[in-house]
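Changelog excerpt

This revision adds worked examples to the README so contributors can see how folded entries look when concatenated. The first example is reproduced verbatim below.
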Amino acid sequence: MEQLDETLAAIAAAETPEAVEAIRVAALGKQGWVSALLKTLGAMSPEERQAQGPKIHAAREGVTAALAGRKAALESAALEARLVAETVDLSLPAPQAPRGSIHPVSQVMEELAEIFADLGFAVASGPEIEDDWHNFTALNMPETHPARAMHDTFYFPDRDAQGRAMLLRTHTSPVQIRAMLSQGAPLRVIAPGRVYRSDSDATHTPMFHQIEGLVIDKGIHLGHLKWTLETFLKAFFERDDIVLRLRPSYFPFTEPSVEVDVGYTIVNGKRVVGGGGDVENGGWMEVLGSGMVNRKVIEFGGLDPDEWQGFAFGTGVDRLAMLKYGMDDLRAFFDGDARWLAHYGFGALDVPTLSGGVGVKP
């Protein structure tokens, strides 16, 4: 069969898979010559079919086998060529795959530490399991203060060696007392860390993060406090148009005490920090509490309040992260969802700082 010999020769000479496919279509496709021969079997007499049928079927099987063999040979040759061209140095370490992501709270902690380091503040730390003297009494919070109630504070059944009640600290303010007692004055520290309160909703969690600052020196007044907070917030939000509003308030550990509001405007339905809050589409939002350190607190810190004065301030790290990066539900901070982190620009293995960080998302 002349066509069979030509087809087999063409298959053997084919250099690419595409050429093999073209031969298959010409022989076994709907319009191929083998298919045409198979169709003629129906018009043959039984004697002709008995004589020609085995030859036609043998031609089809021969072409099919030759096509499969040539295709396998070409694929094997291509693989061999690829193995020769692509070499792998097995002595090199494997590339490190992404395994995690910087968390917004960690990012903000880095930013705050960098900002306050530029202002001359050191970072101080203290135990998360505190006694009620450091957590309440030394901060001028009497026995009748609501924060001492069981529904607000996580108490332990055990007491320390001095018989003092033990608890999970409700703020990082005890670090201020410990810093004054151990370092004396002058003093300029920030105290970031985890704190615990019995509260849980979209904007509160039983465990959250605070950062508090303390300055103790001679001649300190509210002007120093306002300048420090204004400089800090401008650096953190990366805007020069931050406007503060100080409102009289009450905290047991400061006197006088002020709540600090920051101006914002609504842009495309989102709250953008910056500018005065009295403008159209603007408003004021509380961001932290502060004040001049109470004389009793200075005394509990082992210092003479007639010689030393100071100011203190505190704010929620989680709240600052929500404001800067446009997050609207505090509970998502604890879901551990990498997609949520990536949405706000926090990439795997990326540990940005304020000077080289993710910045404010548009």
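The second example, added in the same revision:
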Amino acid sequence: MTNNFVEELRWRGLLHDAMPGTEEQLNKEVTSAYIGFDPTADSLHIGGLVPIILLKHFQQFGHKPIALVGGATGMIGDPSGKSNERNLLDEAALTKNVNGIKGQLSKFLDFSSGADNAAELVNNYDWMKELSFLDFARDIGKHITVNYMMAKDSVKNRLNAESNEGMSFTEFTYQLIQGYDFLHLYKEKNCLLQMGGSDQWGNITTGTELIRRKVQGKAFAITCTLITKADGTKFGKSEGGNVWLDPERTSPYKFYQYWLNASDDDSEKYIKIFTFLDKETIEKLIEEHKEQPHLRLLQKTIANEVTRMVHSEEALENAIKASNILFGKSTSGDLKGLDEKTFLDVFEGVPQAEISKADLENGIDIIAALNEKSGFLKSNGEARRALKENSISINKEKVKDDYTLSVEDLIADKFVLLQRGKKNYFLLKVI
């Protein structure tokens, strides 16, 4: 191998810890590694981008990535970083979630080229479903002591004196079951490395220890830094909740806006972690950003790169157009090119009034539209003054006092956008 995967993670700020010998193993030969994805929903959110990016880098460096979707472990729940027991999902919900995540992963990794290092998707339910409790206790449980398991932070934090919740036996067994996954992939697919977030170190090393004790094998571990925000708020959360990779849950416009609104400090970290731009390009961008921070060069570059990677070039172009509707010059045609979900995301929180389709088909006088039909302006007199001042726009285009609203003005067959001045918006919704 001519390139150094661990060094790549190091300069990007992704490397948290690596087991001794890991870097040497990866420099010596093509190696298989896996990361587990927890199917608590049918989509990953942007926190799940980090392990995907790890696997993508891994594949680009010539190694073989394995993405494990935890159909079995998802039935139990990982206690790492949790303060209490989570709700367990039934098999039908898990199957739906597993399929959703599989579809997302296939957008980032090469599963189908036929190359020696083509990625693989596996589901641990496939090998756990036939395993009896007695077999597991006899063949796996005897190799790891309770003392060893109790020493893990994920367990200690839940059992300390300040914790009121404690920990069920179900969650206590999680690290052993994850360890068994590593053992299975080690034996069946010669998988020598497991990667994950820094909170997974205890679970991963249980796997390497099980491999050592059960089959006298040597396995390795890498953990990446957990992403934090400079202001202390949680990464991957917006005012509306989680930011998801699924465009049905988080529109490409809102996804784009999340990265665009990152702080300067966070953006210096994010451009290394979430893009595949090379070191020279990134360092140049950081310098240019520091010289003219008001241009938000880093934020725009990250938003462009990540939106294109997660969604598509077309989705990125639409997100930029939607962003320009509020913050730049745009036309009625730009507005009418938006789907309903994106339109409502752009104008979230803008006051609305309802009008009937019949009224619109008959035509609504602009004065009535601004006052009587909407309440946007307080009186007909105010409406006339605003029109005389040339400050009224319908769907971003200036109108005069002789204008009549019609069905031709509809956006997404449902809305008309009224505007006074640059920032005062109002929506008419057809019912």
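Reviewer comment on example two: Residues 226 and 247 are 24 Å apart (CA to CA). The first strand starts at residue 15 and ends at 18.
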